[in-house]
Write a structure and sequence with these properties.
By secondary structure, the protein is an alpha+beta fold. The protein has 2 domains: 207 residues, Ribosomal Protein S5, domain 2 (2-Layer Sandwich); 173 residues, GHMP kinase, C-terminal domain (Alpha-Beta Plaits, 2-Layer Sandwich). Helix content is 38%, strand content 21%. α3 crosses α5 and α4 packs antiparallel against α5. It is globular and about 60 Å long. Bound molecules: 2-deoxy-2-fluoro-alpha-D-galactopyranose (GAF).
């Protein structure tokens, strides 16, 4: 027997091993990096992610007894089986640990009136690095959502599925995240970045071919752990909502950057940096999209670095490892660099001229080693396909 290599092939093979029959189908969803537009999604703003080639796959078959079983493949190829759940009985707070993610999706779809209560067998395999801020949990949720919808024979619009997945994450898992990651995983297409205006809910594809400009997006997984269920993310989100309320606007997206200084003085001091970040970050997204459309990718560098400075100094979600990644990449000739995702650990990206790749990599590794930090993992990110059915 040939060795399964892709997550989809691994999930299918593991399903057959566990259940003694082939799965009815296999669905998969990618992780993402966000080129720019951080902590803007829950402020009704703009984001610009692209999908990674790394994916989480779910091999699935329906059951008839109302039970959902979920097994996931570890790095050693072994399967970890979650306690089976009765889909009709799922209630937020009843499933803990990694199994809360697939259970939450089943719960959210059930709440939506989708026929998932007959149950299903799911087997998961993937290669999105976990806890690296590259959206592995959202990839898992999106793949499970497509699998359960596929088994139910329901064809839904991707932005709607993203909202259901967000509900499962917010209300079942208990992480107060926005809609960036689910939308990226479900709506991205190969060779493009996704310009998403959260308010309008309209995904727009922007061609993104770094190689054509002699550039690459280098991902630096700092391996500093990151978790969105902890308080830091929710506290900032609550601060933004409080600021919007004081300013009398529906969301911080509605603050005009031309009036930013006058607006900030109307706020308590602790909220000013949050608002400054969100307003300037939305502006940086729009300027990045404009440059991409004009084929001027190299000029995006300062916007990426500006985003990092704003996340570090105003939003205060960076950490030592992310700053070392960004500073050491810049010192070796990156055109721009920034942390990606929620922050407090996870990954950074650097926009790098292809001929500087080795130097940047050496500089980042040396920067981490000189501070006795865990060796980071580096790879070049290629904009890849969004979620879909594999077989
Ligand atoms: C995390 C969240 F899940 C997203 O919704 C988004 O807010 C991001 O942090 C910050 O831009 O990835």
């Amino acid at each position: 027997m040939t060795q399964a290599t892709t997550p989809a092939a691994k999930a299918a093979e593991a399903f057959e091993r566990l259940h003694g029959r082939a799965p009815e189908g296999v669905w998969s969803a990618p992780g993402r990096v966000n080129l720019i537009g951080e902590h803007t999604d829950y402020n009704d703003g703009y984001v610009l992610p692209f999908a990674l080639p790394h994916r989480i796959a779910v091999a699935a078959s329906p059951r008839a007894d109302g039970v959902m079983t979920v097994s996931t493949m570890g790095d050693d190829g072994g399967l970890q089986e979650a306690d089976p759940v009765v889909v009709a009985d799922l209630v937020p707070g009843t499933v803990k640990g990694w199994a809360a993610y697939p259970s939450g999706v089943a719960w959210a779809l059930r709440e939506q009136g989708i026929a998932v209560t007959a149950g299903a067998d799911l087997v998961i395999a993937g290669d999105v690095p976990a806890g690296a801020g590259l959206s592995s949990s959202h990839a898992l949720e999106c793949a499970v959502a497509l699998a359960l919808l596929g088994l139910a024979g329901v064809d839904a619009e991707r932005p709607d599925i993203a909202r259901w997945v967000q509900r499962s994450e917010n209300d079942f898992v208990g992480a107060p995240t926005g809609i960036l990651d689910q939308t990226a995983s479900l709506c991205c297409v190969e060779a493009h970045a996704l310009f998403y205006d959260v308010r309008s809910g309209k995904p727009e594809q922007v061609a993104f071919d770094a190689a054509a400009s002699g550039l690459e997006v280098l991902v630096i997984d700092t391996r500093a752990s990151h978790a969105l269920v902890d308080g830091g993310y929710g506290a900032r989100r609550a601060g933004c909502e409080r600021a919007a309320e004081i300013l009398g606007v529906p969301a911080l997206r509605d603050v005009d950057i031309a009036e930013l200084d006058q607006t900030l003085v109307r706020l308590p001091e602790d909220l000013r940096p949050l608002v400054r970040h969100v307003v300037t970050e939305n502006d940086r997204v729009l300027r990045t999209v404009d440059l991409l459309r004009k084929g001027r990718l190299a000029e995006v560098g300062p916007l990426l670095s500006g985003s990092h400075a704003s996340l570090r100094d105003d939003y205060r979600v960076s950490c030592l490892e992310l700053d070392v990644a960004v500073d050491s990449a810049m010192a070796a000739g990156a055109l721009g660099a920034r942390m990606v995702g929620g922050g407090f650990g996870g990954s950074a990206i650097a926009l790098v001229p292809v001929e500087r790749h080795d130097e940047v990599e050496r500089s980042v590794l040396a920067g981490f080693a000189s501070r006795s930090l865990t060796r980071p993992r580096l790879f070049t990110a290629v904009p890849s396909a969004g979620a879909g059915r594999d077989r």
